[in-house]
Write a structure and sequence with these properties.
The complex is a heterodimer of chains A (245) and B (324). By secondary structure, chain A is of the alpha/beta class. Chain A has one domain: Rossmann fold (3-Layer(aba) Sandwich), CATH 3.40.50.620. In chain A, 27% of the residues lie in helices and 33% in strands. Chain A contains six helices and 15 strands. In chain A, strands 11-10-9-12-8-1-6-7-13 form a nine-stranded mixed sheet, with helices on both faces. Chain A has a two-stranded antiparallel ribbon with strand order 2-5. In chain A, a hairpin with a 2-residue loop joins strand 10 and strand 11. In chain A, helix 2 crosses helix 5. Chain B folds into two domains: 185 residues, 3-Layer(aba) Sandwich (Rossmann fold); 117 residues, Rossmann fold. Chain B has eight helices and 17 strands. In chain B, the strands form four sheets. Chain B has a seven-stranded parallel sheet, with helices on both faces. A five-stranded parallel sheet of chain B has the order 14-13-15-16-17. The radius of gyration of chain B is 21 Å and the shape is globular. The chains are: A alpha/beta (245), B alpha/beta (324). At the A-B interface, helix 3, helix 4, strand 9, strand 10 and strand 11 of A face helix 3, helix 4, strand 7, strand 8 and strand 9 of B. Strand 14 of chain A pairs antiparallel with strand 9 of chain B, so a sheet runs across the interface.
Chain lengths: 245, 324
């Protein structure tokens, strides 16, 4: 099986988010970047399936060179090779066009990624890529097993889950508990250094959206403390003061 | 120029979040001088669908077919595009959900449309079409201009205040919509659907009572469930709780779980790790009950009680029953 796993390079979930240049750019100062946590689940399951089926796994990132430590980490976890499309992604549409362009050249059986990136939270790239390739997509996938050309998927739906079977090729947006996150071992880290990382230039895309500026939410007011002995009065406050009951 | 609004159905009824989407779409239609047209897919009745009129829709297109009984983003997106073309809509609006995002994505690729997901407020339409959306899981906002001719907006819950004053007064016209269905969209076989029945769904809930490791074990959940029942609330939990299998995964609220935006979120024995806060920061009002006064969750809360959850929960349940 030929597998492609797309990863994002995003600030760690605990990062404090601030902006610079008149609120037009993310302030990367002191921010730790990681592989998107959902992408990490996709990668972990991808590596397991590659090992089970004796297939290959390519990791793809659309972004700038500062993502290379994260791409090397993906190689250390078990990807065979990597491709980086050298561009600052403008929006979901732009990213999807780049991924679809690579995918068209290579005919992957399975294209995996996280259900959403944790920076822009759009959750639309898998659907865009699949439509551009004219194939099916499912998200969020919590369980994935393959048998020949058929896959069995469990995906979350509102208030429960749905189990379905579908034929390859597919694009899947993944989330836990599809696999346990993998931590690279020493051998993986050593071999990752020499695994191929190809840098390609982006194809041109019509501009669909143009970022204007960023902003931060208004600061939260103080928390009103209620003594435990008077807990019951909370309900009245919620009804008359906060007006949420 | 029409605005096409997709609404989600639950057992034939319009979901509350989708009524918000209708109200949002109707406002956009008014701003841009167009008609608000709704698309509903799946089994329902015209006396239910005409309720979209209460929130400003003029017309509801209803596509129903036995093949459409399962959520199928491929087929649904095909129908959405056909509806957009037949109504000549240039703006398409969907509610934020797994299905809404998947349909929006497919439609955007088909129509070469600019897509913005996670929209939190009405667009600015003077001098360019600008929308603001939530990014970094609620930690910031981004304002973007959509430049394409066709524009697709996926709108978050609470993006608009729902005005229910005119409920029951205006009926939308309901028309049957018969789309072309493509076999390629139906290649998957649905083997099984597990749906928690009779429970309030987390994404739709107005009130959520949620428990963390401070609940000490799955056998201690009853007082929390009692409060939820008294308030007509849904129940949720933190990641450690679902990892320990104390509660099912579909109750897990947080960065890697479900993101919720109720009017009221009551956290019991949850310390408030940043990953959990990321799932609840869309809530209008947050109550935190924790025995540790230093729990970080208090910093994000509107009301707090320091104490033993097992003593406090019954008191709250009693007070909640008294107001009903």
């Amino acid at each position: 099986m030929k597998i492609l796993v797309c990863i994002t390079n995003v600030p760690d979930t605990t990062s404090k988010i601030t902006f610079t240049d008149n609120d037009t750019r993310l302030n990367k100062n002191g921010v730790q970047f990681i592989i998107g946590p959902y992408d990490d689940y996709a990668l972990a399951r991808g590596v397991e399936l590659k090992e089970q089926t004796g297939g290959t796994l390519t990791v793809l990132h659309v972004g700038e060179a500062d993502a290379e430590p994260q791409i090397r980490k993906a190689l250390a976890i078990g990807a065979d090779d990597a491709i980086r499309v050298n561009a600052e992604p403008l929006d979901s549409y732009f990213t999807a066009v780049q991924i679809a362009n690579i995918a068209r050249q290579e005919n992957y059986d399975l294209i995996l990624m996280g259900r959403e990136s944790i920076d822009y939270n759009s959750g639309v790239v898998h659907g865009l890529v699949a439509e551009m390739l004219g194939i099916s997509s499912y998200s969020p996938v919590m369980k994935l097993d393959t048998s020949g050309n058929t896959v069995t998927i469990a995906r979350e739906i509102d208030g429960g889950k749905e189990i379905l079977t579908a034929n390859l090729p597919l694009v899947l947006g993944c989330q836990e508990p599809i696999a346990e996150w993998k931590i690279p071992n020493m051998r993986g880290i050593m071999t990752a250094r020499t695994k191929p990382l190809k840098v390609v230039e982006p194809v041109s895309v019509e501009e669909m959206t143009e970022p204007q500026h960023y902003s931060l939410p208004a600061p939260k007011g103080a928390c009103k403390m209620i003594p435990a002995s008077e807990a019951g009065t909370l309900i009245r406050l919620l009804q008359t003061e906060a007006k949420v009951l | 120029m029409s605005v096409l609004i997709y609404i989600e159905l639950d057992n034939g009824s319009i979901k509350k979040t989708s009524l918000e989407t209708v109200a949002y779409g109707a406002k956009v239609a008014a701003q841009t001088g167009g008609q608000a047209i709704v698309l509903a897919i799946g089994k329902s009745h015209s006396d239910e669908l005409e309720k979209a009129g209460d929130f400003g829709a003029e017309k509801v297109l209803h596509a129903s077919d036995e093949k459409l009984s399962h959520e199928n983003s491929m087929a649904y997106a095909d129908i959405l595009v056909q509806a957009a073309e037949s109504t000549q809509s240039k703006i398409i609006i969907l509610p934020k959900s797994g299905l809404g995002d998947a349909m929006a994505a497919r439609a955007a690729a088909k129509l070469k449309a600019g897509i913005v997901s996670g929209v939190t407020a009405l667009p600015e339409t003077e001098g360019g079409f600008q929308v603001t959306r939530s990014i970094f899981t609620g930690k910031a906002f981004s304002t973007v201009e959509i430049k394409s001719d066709i524009k697709i907006l996926v709108v978050k819950k609470n993006a608009i205040e729902l005005d229910e004053s005119s409920v029951g007064t205006v009926k939308a016209t309901v028309e049957t919509f018969s789309p072309q269905l493509r076999d390629a969209d139906f290649q998957a076989t649905v083997v099984e659907v597990e749906k928690a029945s009779g429970e309030v769904s987390l994404t739709e809930a107005q009130v959520i009572v949620s428990g963390g490791r401070g609940m000490k074990g799955p056998e201690n959940w009853q007082p929390l469930v009692d409060l939820a029942n008294a308030l007509g609330a849904a129940t949720g939990c933190s990641k450690p709780v679902s990892d320990l299998d104390w509660r099912p995964h579909h109750e897990h609220i947080g960065q890697t779980g479900i993101k919720v935006a109720p009017n009221l979120y009551i956290a019991c024995g949850i310390s408030g790790a940043i990953q959990h806060l990321a799932g609840v920061n869309g809530s209008k009002c947050i109550v935190v009950i924790n025995k540790d006064p230093e729990a970080p969750f208090f910093k994000a809360a509107d009301y707090g009680i320091v104490g033993d959850v097992f003593e406090i929960l019954p008191k709250l349940t009693e007070a909640a029953k008294a107001i009903k």
